[in-house]
Every structure is written in structure tokens, then in C-alpha cells.
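lol forgot to send this yesterday, sorry. C-alpha cells for the thing we talked abt
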């Protein structure tokens, strides 16, 4: 019998919903909150705005921001130590994917102990985590709703994928107003990251009717709003649409997992210490071209979701058009055309390809691939 599962946090969405954090932490039994916030979000003043909501609910807090844009193993270990020393009993993350992923890793180590490497892979967390509340500050990672945490292994220089239902936050609070302080470059990277989540989840071997509905709607929202969101920091309609798209793409990939673009992107990001959005965006069209024969009908559906209503086109033509449209969108929002522009050297491609095949995201890619196939895709995206 075929069994499918769908996990999701409680979701609070809307302008001004940041004011819900105190009530949410209190309701989950928190007395002292370990507040994880990245430097960017502190500098924009959002943490200062958030603290009175915690104080109004008579909550104590300890703020931690000592982690990198790609959170590292030793940083989250230090975070878990501080969590215990400070006597915290809940984790609240306000920030981009890095802050939320770091918060999940701290919660894992605080309750399960050991080193974060022990949880790399699928379903290796065995003890319940403290309550997690996540407030995303970018429209892209989807970490606020996902069962994923990506942590860099400082020795192996790779990004570890940790997947567990225990990592799904208890409550996700998405306030699109926060997106108005994100610059256009980060808006582009994170928006393309959300698109890669939605497309990879939609064609994933683990996709279901429940994940498809979210993936397709996210694709429609991103195709219609990412350009406008990159063009203007104050376009409220575009920000609301992108916040919703990121959340829905997150629900889709959290439950359907991803594919080769992410398996490859994690290796490049780990090696060069780059945020994932830009590398995923460069790799996505090349991976879609490779995956084409496995996903013609689904890519044709993506074409319609992206706004093309042409009954004369065959599914094959629509699928190819989809790849061109994804490439055009990436170009329009300023994504560089090749990985060489990010500083990648061609000599490392064999090693990156061997590691990509071991990444948990590869398992659900719709087309089988050998190390040689992956090397070929890397060269095409170079
Ligand atoms: Fe991602």
C-alpha cells in the first residue's frame, strides 16, 4: 500500500503578524525564549520591534546572533551550550533561512545532545525538540514550514542536509512587511530559491496531490511577482505574494523533498561558502534540461502556471518553453549566467559531483543520474 504524509506547522500569515510572537511563545509553554536573529535583521530594527511583544507576555529572552550566513557545525554547538546555560525552554527564530536553520540545529542539540553531524540524513532525531517558532525575514528558504535544516560541516566543507519531522517549527509567523527591508539582490536570490523549491518539489518522485497544489500556486505567484518585488522594496502587493509563494514552496518541498539542483547546489555552497539561492538559480535550468525526458507533462503544467495559455503547443514544446522562461526570469532579476562567475574552478567539478550523489536531495530527483551525468550538468552550468 502507498502511504503519503504531509507535515505543516500552525501558520499565521499577514501584515503586522509579528505582534503574535509573545502569545505564541507563551501558548507553547515558554518562560525563557532563545531568540535567534541574524545581524541583518537586528540592524534593520526588527528585533527591537519584536522584544516588547515578548515582554508583554512576561517572557524572558536571550538573544543569539553568533552564526554565519551559512551556519556552521561549531557555531550551532556553541548555541546549544548557551541555550542550556541560559535556562531557555523555547526557540524563536527571526531572520532568513540561516537563522531558522541555525535555530533548528540548536534545538536539536539542546534536546538530543551529541554533534550535529550525527543527525545528517533522514529521520535520525529521536528525542522531542523544544518548541520552535519561526518568523522568516526573506521570501525564499521556506525553512519556517519545512522539516529541513542545512548546516555547513567546517571540516568536510559541505552543507549537510538534516531532514526530520521534528524540525518542522510548531508555529510559522509570516509577516510580509518584514520583506520591505530586504535589498533587491537578496530578494532576487531568495525568490529564485523559492522557485527552485517549487519546481523541484513538483517533479520530485515523492510529490503528491497535496504537495503539487502548493508547488503550482507558488510557481504562479513567483512568475507573476518576483520581478516586481525585485524592482521595488515598497511594492506591498508583490511582497505579500512572494511571502505566500515562499511559504507554499516550503510546504511543497518539505513534504516532496527536492532534486538534483539542490543536491548540486549544496556542494557548491559548502565549498565556496555561498548562500544557496544564487547557485540553485544558475543550476536549475541545466538540471531541468537534464530532467526533461522524465517530466515533460509536469513541466508543461508549470508552463501554464507561469501564465502561458497556448493550446497549440505540444507538452514537449511547453516543457521546453518552461525552461527558457525560468532562464529568462533568472536573467531579469540579475542572476549571473554561469557558476564560473561565482568563483568556481572547473577542477573541483568531479569532487562536487561525487558528493552531490550522496546528498539526501538526490534521492527524489525524477531522473537517475551517474557521477558523469552530474559532471556534465555542472559543465553546462559553468
Ligand atoms: Fe533550498
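and heres what i got for the seq, position by position
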Amino acid at each position: 500500500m502507498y502511504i503519503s504524509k504531509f507535515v505543516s506547522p500552525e501558520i499565521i500569515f499577514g501584515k503586522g503578524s509579528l505582534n503574535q510572537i509573545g502569545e505564541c511563545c507563551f501558548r507553547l509553554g515558554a518562560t525563557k525564549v532563545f531568540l535567534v536573529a541574524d545581524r541583518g535583521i537586528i540592524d534593520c530594527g526588527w528585533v527591537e520591534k519584536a522584544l516588547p511583544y515578548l515582554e508583554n507576555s512576561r517572557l524572558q529572552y536571550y538573544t543569539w546572533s553568533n552564526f554565519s550566513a551559512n551556519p556552521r557545525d561549531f557555531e550551532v554547538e556553541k548555541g546549544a551550550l548557551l541555550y542550556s546555560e541560559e535556562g531557555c525552554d523555547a526557540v524563536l527564530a527571526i531572520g532568513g533561512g540561516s537563522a531558522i536553520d541555525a535555530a533548528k540545529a540548536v534545538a536539536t542539540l539542546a534536546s538530543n545532545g551529541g554533534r550535529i553531524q550525527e543527525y545528517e540524513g533522514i529521520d535520525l532525531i529521536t528525542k522531542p525538540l523544544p518548541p520552535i517558532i519561526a518568523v522568516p525575514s526573506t521570501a525564499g528558504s521556506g525553512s519556517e514550514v519545512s522539516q529541513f535544516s542545512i548546516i555547513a560541516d567546517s571540516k568536510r566543507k559541505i552543507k549537510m542536509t538534516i531532514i526530520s519531522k521534528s524540525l518542522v517549527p510548531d508555529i510559522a509567523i509570516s509577516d510580509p512587511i518584514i520583506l520591505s527591508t530586504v535589498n533587491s539582490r537578496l530578494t532576487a536570490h531568495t525568490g529564485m530559491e523559492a522557485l527552485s523549491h517549487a519546481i523541484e518539489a513538483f517533479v520530485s518522485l515523492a510529490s503528491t496531490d497535496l504537495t503539487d497544489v502548493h508547488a503550482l500556486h507558488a510557481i504562479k505567484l513567483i512568475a507573476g511577482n518576483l520581478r516586481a518585488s525585485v524592482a521595488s522594496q515598497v511594492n506591498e502587493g508583490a511582497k505579500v505574494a512572494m511571502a505566500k509563494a515562499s511559504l507554499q514552496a516550503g510546504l511543497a518541498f518539505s513534504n516532496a523533498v527536492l532534486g538534483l539542483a539542490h543536491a548540486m547546489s549544496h556542494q557548491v555552497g559548502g565549498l565556496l561558502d555561498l548562500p544557496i539561492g544564487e547557485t540553485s538559480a544558475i543550476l536549475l535550468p541545466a538540471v531541468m534540461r537534464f530532467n526533461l525526458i522524465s517530466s515533460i507533462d509536469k513541466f508543461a503544467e508549470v508552463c501554464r502556471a507561469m501564465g502561458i495559455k497556448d493550446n497549440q503547443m505540444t507538452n514537449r514544446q511547453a516543457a521546453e518553453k518552461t525552461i527558457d522562461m525560468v532562464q529568462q526570469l533568472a536573467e531579469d532579476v540579475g542572476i549571473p549566467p554561469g557558476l564560473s562567475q561565482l568563483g568556481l574552478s572547473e577542477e573541483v567539478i568531479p569532487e562536487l559531483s561525487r558528493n552531490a550523489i550522496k546528498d539526501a536531495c538526490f534521492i527524489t530527483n525524477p531522473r537517475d543520474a551517474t557521477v558523469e551525468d552530474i559532471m556534465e550538468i555542472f559543465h553546462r552550468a559553468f
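Strands lie at 10-13, 32-37, 60-64, 90-95, 121-122, 132-136, 148-153, 158-163, 171-174. anyway ping me if u want another try
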